[in-house]
Amino acid sequence: MTHIYNGLTALQVAENRSYFGANTLSHAPVEYNTQDASPQLIALWFVRGVLIAVVVMLFAIPLLDFFMGNIPYELWIAFVACVLLLTSVAVIVVLVAAIRYLILRRKENHQKLINSVRDKALVRVVRDGKTEHIARMDIVVGDVILLGVGDEVPADAVLLEATELIVSEYIVNGKFECSKTTHHTESDLGEIFPPNYVMCGSIVLQGEAVAQVFAVGNHATKNEELL
């Protein structure tokens, strides 16, 4: 650093976290439809399928016998086969829904585990005039962060200092290498990713930088696309 930064005080950190939110993702509750069935719906479908099959067999056979008299043995066999076929189809549909639900639940739990690990990754910040290592999830708007080679940008930030800084914004906009600088022109103001901004999820490939956070959590650029 070529300048001395005091960063936020403990009181400012608490105020900014209360006003702008924490640097974590808060997903809306998962809503299930007929394709993403919940366990309750799966059980309901199964019970309905079994009940329908039983009701059909209990009522249809006596009715056929009453109206048609002596029913040929072959017709009985065909009727029972049709009922069993329909029951089998219902069971298959329920099994497919159950498997789909389990796969989706496993993916959701895996993503939660990844987010938990990332939230606890350490980030260098300046607070009260001192350099500290804090968890990524504890970053707040206004924090002064220090970035070096290999670091992942923990939140959207504006550069205060940059030395030969090159970052990969592939996860944000598909660009593998982007040169970043504190200098910008009026023509850069309309860009989504101006050269003096480093966006959440970007990886530092070269150089080092000092930046100040302006968006965290759900409001960060990459995270907004995930919601």
Can you walk through the features of this model?
- This protein is α+β, with helices and mostly antiparallel strands and 227 residues long.
- It has 2 domains: 10-23 and 122-226, Calcium-transporting ATPase, cytoplasmic transduction domain A (Distorted Sandwich), CATH 2.70.150; 39-118.
- The protein has helices at 10-20, 39-68, 73-119, 170-173, 221-226; strands at 122-127, 130-135, 144-147, 156-169, 175-180, 197-198, 203-215.
- Strands 1, 2, 3, 4, 5, 6 and 7 form a 7-stranded antiparallel β-sheet that branches.
- β1 (122-127) and β2 (130-135) form a beta hairpin.
- α2 packs antiparallel against α3.
- The model is unreliable at 28-35 (pLDDT under 50).
Main features:
2 domains; Calcium-transporting ATPase, cytoplasmic transduction domain A; 227 residues; 7-stranded antiparallel beta sheet; 43% helix; alpha+beta; 22% strand
Task: Tell me the layout of helices and strands.
Layout lengths: L9 H11 L18 H30 L4 H47 L2 E6 L2 E6 L8 E4 L8 E14 H4 L1 E6 L16 E2 L4 E13 L5 H6 L1
Order of helices and strands: HHHEEEEHEEEH
From the 3D coordinates, which CATH architecture of the largest domain would you assign? Answer: Distorted Sandwich
Counting H and I runs of at least 4 residues, what is the number of helices? 5
Could you tell me the mean pLDDT? Answer: 78
Distance between the termini: 36 Å
Rg calculated over all Cα atoms: 30 Å
Strand content: 15-25%
Secondary-structure content class: alpha+beta
When the domains are counted, the total is: 2
CATH class of the largest domain: Mainly Beta
How many β-strand runs?
Answer: 7
Largest sheet: 7 strands, antiparallel
CATH fold-level name of the largest domain: Calcium-transporting ATPase, cytoplasmic transduction domain A
> What would the principal axes of the Cα set say about the shape?
rod-shaped
